[in-house]
Amino acid sequence: MSQRYRPNEATCPIDIELLALLLRSSEARVEEIVAGHSEAQRAALAAFCFQRSHMRRLGLVVATQCSREILWKTAGFVGEVLFDQSRDRASFEIDAPASTRRRVTLARVA
């Protein structure tokens, strides 16, 4: 791979297949699966997911299995926020704001 191509996206800290499994799993199952990983891996996964709106809830669930210190060490201020929100169950219920973009309409030919 040349130096010209460098993706903007951060690399997922776990296998993509495992991430897909976590996305399809219940909270209890997610906690069970991530319990087998090191705390540093859990913190990296929590931060990775939390920074993506469609995976934010998964990030919060994973963060419940991490200490404040490791989240801070892994993600800095984001880790601190992640820790606080993961301990507040109300954070889990907040949905992403609805889009205010207009719907696309197609011109009708008469």
Give the class from helix and strand content and strand pairing: mainly alpha
Which percent range fits the helix content? 40-55%
β-sheet strand percentage: under 5%
Largest sheet: none
Query: How confident overall, as mean pLDDT?
Result: 85
Number of strands: 0
Brief digest:
The protein has a domain at 16-90. It has 7 helices and no strands. It has helices spanning 16-24, 27-34, 39-50, 56-63, 68-75, 77-86, 90-93.
Protein model, in words:
With 110 residues, the protein is an all-alpha fold. It has a domain of 75 residues. 54% of the residues lie in helices and 0% in strands. The protein has 7 helices and no strands. Helix 3 packs across helix 5, helix 4 packs across helix 6 and helix 5 packs antiparallel against helix 6. The longest helix has 12 residues. The N and C termini lie far apart (51 Å). The model has no long low-confidence stretch (mean pLDDT 85).
